[in-house]
Every structure is written in C-alpha cells, then in structure tokens.
Amino acid sequence: MFRIVHRCVLISMLLLFAGRVLAEELEIPHTTLRLQGEVGARTEAVLKHWVMPMPDANPAVLEMFRIRDREPAYQKPVPWAGEFIGKYLQSAIQLIQFTDDPALKEQVADIVKELLSTQSPEGYLGPFRKDERLLSHWDLWGHYHVLYALHAWYALTGDEAALAGATKAADLICDTYLDGDRRIFDAGSHEMNMAIMHALGILYRETGNERYHQLMKEIEKDWEKAPAGDYLRTALDGVPFYKTPKPRWESLHCMQGLGELYRISGDERYREALLHHWYSIHETDIHNAGSFSTGEGAVGNPFKPGAIETCCTVAWIAYSVDALRLSADSTIADAIELATLNTVLGYEHPSGRWCTYNTPMDGKREASAHSIVFQSREGTPELNCCSVNGARGLSIIADWGVLEGEDGIYLNYYGPGTMAAATKGHGTWTFTEETNYPSEGAIKIHVTPGSDAERTLYFRIPAWSKKTHAFLNGTALDTAPAGAYLAITRRWSEGDMVTLNLDMSIRSLSGDGFVDYNSSLYQGPLLLAYDQKFNALDPAAVPRMDLKSIAPKPVATDARFKPMVLLEMNTVDGTPLILTDYATAGAHGTFYRSWLPVDNAPPVAFHQQRPATGTVQSPGEVYLQWSGAGKNARYRVRVGTDPAMSTVLYTAEALEETTHFYSPPAGEKATYFWDVTTTVGDYVVDSVNGPFSFAVDPERP
Prior knowledge:
By secondary structure, the protein is an alpha+beta fold. It contains 18 helices and 33 strands. Strands 5, 16, 17, 18, 20, 21, 22 and 23 form an 8-stranded antiparallel beta sheet that branches. α4 packs antiparallel against α5 (102-117) and α6 packs parallel to α9 (196-207).
C-alpha cells in the first residue's frame, strides 16, 4: 500500500524552509538572457511577430491619450484601456535583456518618449476626459501599469525623464487622494484601482517621497471596508484566498503591495500575509498546467471548468516572484516553471503572432482577438487586456531565472542557453546550460564566476524529481533533496561544471468529478495531452492507460509546429495513442485533452468540508461531509478527543458515500475532532485539510 499524507502550510511555518529561516530578501540581479530551445524560439517569435509590429498596427494605443479631450475622442474606451500601453511596455522593456538586436531598445525609447509627450501639465497619463481623471473607471489601475513600466525603463536605462513622468503622475494621484476628502476607495473597482499601492511602493523606495508611503497606508486602511476584502487581516486570520469577499485575479497585484509594505517597514505581518495568500492559492486554485483562475477568480477547486485567463496567469507568476524572493522556497520556483512551460507557452501561439484569452484544460486555443474582440476599437484592432500582457509571461523569466541573496546565488531557470547575472559586489556570473530540458532531464551547467571569492550556488531540485543525481566536475555529490535547493559552496573557477540528472518518470495528478475523475500525466515539468493533430481517434475515444505499465516511446513528426515531446503510449486495449506536450497541443487549431483516463492513478486530493473547525453543533446527529476521492474510493471516518486521534471515540469503515452521520454522547458539552482517510487500489490517502473540530452544546436549540 502507498501511504500519501497531505499537509497544510501554516503561517507560523511560512518563513522556515530547508531547515533555516530566511533572514533577508532575495534580490533580482540584472540578468542578460540568451535562451535557446522552445522557450528561446517562442520568445524570438513573440518579439518578431507581436512586440515589434504592435505599435504600428495599433497606433491608437497612444493616440487615445492624446485625443482624450478632443471631439470626437477615442471611441468609448473600455474602463481598463489605460493599461494597454503600460502592460505592453512592461514586457517589451524586459525583453531587451533577451536580445542583441538594438531595434527593440530604440523602439521602446521612442514609445516612452511619445507616451510622456501625452502627459498633462498636472501629470495625468490616461485616456479619460478631464472631468473623469483618476476618479472612476479603472483609471488608477491603468496608471499602475504605466507607472510600473516607466520605472522599469528608468531602472534599465537611467532615463530621468521616465522617472520624472512616473513621479509627476504619482504626485497627481496623491494630490487627488491625500489633500482632500476623497479616498482611493471612492474610485470604485477596488481590486483593480487599489493595485496602485504596488507602484507607489516602488516609487517610494526609489525617491523617498513620504507622500507615496502615506497614500499606501491610507489604501491599507481602505482594505478594511473594500468589497474586495482586507488582504492583510484575512491572511493573518488564516482565511483562504478563495473565501475572501471577492477573490478576483486583479487582487494579486494589490497583494504585491504587501511585499512593498514589508520592504519599506520590515513588518513581518506583511510578508506573512503575502505568503499565506500564495500558499492558499497554490493549494486550491492552480490548474494542472500551472495556470490560475476559474472565470477570472479563485473558486477553491482547480478542476472546476471556467475561463482560464491569460492575464490571471501573468499576475500569478508576478505574484509568485515576490513570494519566491520573500521565502527562498524552491517549490515556488517549481510553480513558476510549471506555469511558464505549460500555460505561458500554451497561450502564446508558436507563431508568436497571437495569444489566447482562455487556455482551457480541455478544448481549443482561440486568439484573444476573437474571444474578447469587444475590447477592440478603431486604431486598436488587436488590443485587449491579454494581447498586451501575454509576452510578460516570457519576459518575466528575467526576474526569477537567477536570484541573489547575501549567502549566494540561486539558479531557478533550466533550459538551453546562457544567463549572465550582474551581482552586487561579486561581478557578473554566467551560467551556460547544455541540455534538452524540459524534454530530457540531463542538465550540464557551466559556471563562469564573476569574482574569485568563495560563494554558495543554490541549484533548484524540482519537487517532482524524486531521484536526482548531481555531479560537480564529474564527481558525484550527495543525493539532492527533492523540492529544495542543492547548495554547493566553494571558490568557483571558470570551467567548473555542475551536472543534474533529473527524474523524468511519468507521474500523474488525479482530478475530481468535474473532470470525470480522469488524470493528468506529466513527464518532468511538462503536462502531456492528447491532440487531434497526432491521432486518428477523436477526443471522446481516448483509450485507457495503466500508470503501472506506462512505457512511452518518442515518435517523430513533420508537423508545422514541432512539439517539445511526442510520445506513443501503450494503452490497456492496445489502441494507438500519441500524447504531446500541453504547450503545443491545439496549436494547429485542433481539439486537445489534458484530462485522460488512467488506471491505477493516485486518488484525488480531497477535502473535509463540514462541520468546519470552530462550529458549534446542536445535540443529536452531526452531519459530516467531504469531497470525493474517486469513483472506487472507500472512506474511513474517525472521531476523537484530540487532533492526534490518540483517543478514538468512533470509527466508520468502508464508506462509499462522501457523507456520514455521527451521534455524539447525549447531554455532554465537548469538543470533538474528526478526520477522513480513503483507500483506492494500492493507495491510502488522508484528507488534505484534516482533522477538523466541532463543539457540541446540549443547550443549543
């Protein structure tokens, strides 16, 4: 029997990883990237076919700012139209670090200059009329993205005009919301407009302007009454993100403000809150491809169908970078990689010409210009929230591929190519990776140190790689721990090489009734999928596989868009079946499936539901309920007097339903603890979140 125990991460444990407490935040060194493989090819295609042509093909992306008070003005902009240029610039600025071509830098410089030319004398940088500026719509949200981009350009180039434009706009925001009776709350669309806190924090740390920090604190006060929820206090109270009042994806950018408040004040509550929400989302709302959101928000179930929006995944990755920097938890880097190699490469078409709005677990890939065409206008026929944002999923690799701490350098991104990180006080360290990863598990990392000082290098060992072999200059190292960093401390020399052989065994993730209890299969970090393109059988006829006997064989293809992996799978009835990587599935306009019928897969991770901890029950029968673990699951329920179940009062075995009635002793006022365990085939699994507790009050009616 295989025993699987799920554990919940408590706030008190968030800062403790790999046996040590993180004493400082990891920094983002300026990194030059020359990536190869599929990530490099996709990045080059996006640069060539989207980032470079976008401004010429959609000139009103800036013209809408210029004619905002003219007649006729830009035609009824969507409430978030002001974000378009900011989101575009965020990815374009970072992508400068990916290419030797000076044309991109020249283009961005021209666009920044033109953007600043549209700024009003007071500092306004949006598309709305004078009597509406900053007061409604998603205007503060649009300014958030523009200010973030202008600061990023200043940080990259030292362009003082960009910083001056950003601070001038920030000053206008402070004039509007600090010097009178208005509050940011009054602008409405709270989970969007309150994200301005994140940009204000960045500008405060850059300039020291106390008004920016003061407005951040006022926004924090507004959280307490905002319909979207109080991001700080709900976290400190242990509330899962999906149970906050309005858990939309835009809130993730608001919650990046928690990271800024921590950096400014050093108050650990802010770091704890940011990490709490990250782990909560990761546990309950991340889909099999690493993507975030169901219907543009958190719902507490990663299997539930609903639109999986590109912007939501980009926000999740950006938020995850903050969480990684504040924790040094390598499993957060695993989550970023999962989203990047599956969802980001999946929503960006291999041609680089378009991205999706919705990238479903099963279905087809449809361009965002089709599915959310309502956002297009004259002069911006291709623009929508996702088209301008998608490239950031690739460009943000510059923010997490290599990180630096006081104690050393953390290597997170794996794939063919070179990354050169300019560290603080230790020169530029170059890492050249010779590998076919993520298609194969062998990675040779050539290290060129920037200084001759002794340094610790931390190499990420993915949690899914259960048997990793590591070598330094050909000499085997101790077993590398899964889900942690392999630390190597030495005086590094040019020519040193670290080799990792990661475990690429096929593994599975089981889904619940929303996906008919099917399973997802992975090879390394890659989610596998059925695609009509490579199969003679149709989606409904996908045959069953047996996890115990899966033996995939690589196959070749002459398809226009070459997959990262293409595998012939042995099936239970011998029907031919080809699986490809999820990122390529559907690229030819065909239907794909990532939830597949698999025998002998582990049970679904299941949750206890009611009665929840802290509830008080009336005397009589208590109704116990939990989510299902699979079609053939059998459950054991226990009721005891303590969380460790050292004294068990009641046991019910071999239950087929996901509900049960328990009758506590009559007339007693007491607290009881209950847990659930399921047995499916060779697996024994405890609930993800148990045990729960409830009290019985015999005087309660």
